[in-house]
Amino acid sequence: MRILWFSNSPSLYGKNKKNYNGGGWIESLEKLITLQTNIELAISFFHPDNCFKSKTETTTYYPISLYNSPIRKAIHNITYSSFDHYEVKSFVRVINDFKPDIIHVFGSEKSFGLVTNHTDIPVVVHIQGLLNPIKNAYFPPNYNKLDIILPNLLKPVSIFNKLKSLHFFNHDTRREEKILKNCKYLMGRTSWDKDVSQLYAPNSKYFFCNEALRDIFYNSPPWELKVEKKFTIVSTLSQTPYKGFDVILKTTHLLKKLYPKFNFEWQIFGINEYTEFEKRFNIKSKHLNIYLKGVVNSETLVKNLLESNVYVHPAYIDNSPNSVCEAQILGLPIIASNVGGIPSLIENNKNGILIPANDPYTMASKIIMLKNNPDAAIKIGKEARKTAQERHDKKKILSDLLNIYKNLSNA
Questions:
Q1: Locate the Glycosyl transferase family domain: which residues (predicted)?
Q2: Domain count, the chain
Q3: CATH code (residue 273)
């Protein structure tokens, strides 16, 4: 069976020199699939390499390079929405060359899903995040575009880039709606992504399949409670407003105000700075014991997670964030917003703690509770690890995926 993936990640192409927040789980899935002698896999993705295809012993790679010249990049930035047509032509060229039996599109965020209207081959769209719900929760309360612009008045390039990203995002939401409406087959992993995607495509067939995590998280020893003077909280965020950095600022402000003797620090991986929110609240992160660690490799991330006391995910919207799943499989106690697909990952007060979105008061309270009740933290962490080990069992994931491909081939 010939399977073609369209992916936002280059997976293992060129040894894939990426840090922790790339498509690590796509790489893990590729490793699983290529062990199957009855599967011939190809992966296509946007990449600056100027070759049509590159074949290894196990996988054929199709890097799509459309914007690797300054002129083409400039034209693309100015006329972003019109480039979907050119991208689809590249996808069709890949399809015609590889001649797959099944096309597996990872994510509805990019233009890959538009191929459903250009081929009779079965196409399944694998839901990652969902842009339209993200757009609905993109800005925190009392926050808007001006809050992005005003702190950067002396940085016109920064303002341009941020507004450009918002413009691109708005087009991507419209395109996602078009993609989902034309889907015959969907794949996902939470009740939320099933409900939302089938809202757009009520006649589609939905397949359930969990995702493989990066190898290091399976192989790591489990988290153990550290009895030390300093209580360490960890989060992994991207620099987008809906990820909840403002909630972290408000939570730490409460903790320092109400519990001045509480010796804690909050480590945030994935970002180096977040000046918009700091200026909005007139607060410096470091004054609240918040330390922005930037992007790190998986080994460094695992080390820091294992040395922490609790993992916190404060997002306003999310589906099934890998960061939460990775913290769970290590056995950390987790506090997360009760939004999107996260309730499919966490059973409240059993294998994690769910709190309302934008509720720094409850978040602060739960952090104090875990600090004062180490037995509860240990119990929740053990249940989290057990749940995640079952959810992310590689053999089960591979079996489910192969059954989906079998169903699609018989469609």
A1: 226-386
A2: 2
A3: 3.40.50.2000
225: containing domain = 216-391
Asked whether residue 291 falls in the same domain as residue 380, the answer is yes
Do 293 and 400 lie in one domain? The reply is no
Looking at the structure, tell me whether residues 399 and 269 fall in a common domain: no
Residues 141 and 279 in one domain: no
Q: What is the pTM of this model?
A: 0.92
**191 and 221 co-located in one domain:** no
pLDDT tens, per residue, the chain with 411 residues: 999 999 999 999 976 444 434 457 899 999 999 999 899 999 999 998 889 999 998 999 999 987 767 777 777 777 777 789 889 999 999 999 999 999 999 999 999 999 999 999 999 999 999 999 999 999 998 888 887 777 777 788 888 888 888 888 999 999 999 999 999 999 999 999 999 999 999 999 999 999 999 999 999 999 999 877 899 999 999 989 999 999 999 999 999 999 999 999 999 999 988 877 887 777 788 889 999 999 999 999 999 999 999 999 999 999 999 999 999 999 999 999 999 999 999 999 999 999 999 999 999 999 999 999 999 999 999 999 999 999 999 999 999 999 999 999 987
Claim to verify: residue 222 and residue 306 sit in the same structural domain: yes
Query: Same domain, yes or no, for 366 and 402?
Result: no
HEC letters along the chain: CEEEEECCCCCCHHHCCCCCCCCHHHHHHHHHHCCCCCCEEEEEEECCCCCCCEECCCEEEEEECCCCCHHHHHHHHHCHHHHHHHHHHHHHHHHHHHCCCEEEEECCCCHHHHHHHCCCCCEEEECCCCHHHHHHCCCCCCCCHHHHHHHHCCCHHHHHHHHHHHHHHHHHHHHHHHHHHCCCEEEECCHHHHHHHHHHCCCCEEEECCCCCCHHHHHCCCCCCCCCCCEEEEEECCCCHHHCHHHHHHHHHHHHHHCCCCCEEEEEECCCCCHHHHHHHCCCHHHHCEEEEECCCHHHHHHHHHCCCEEEECCCCCCCCHHHHHHHHHCCCEEEECCCCHHHCCCECCCEEEECCCCHHHHHHHHHHHHHCHHHHHHHHHHHHHHHHHHCCHHHHHHHHHHHHHHHHCC
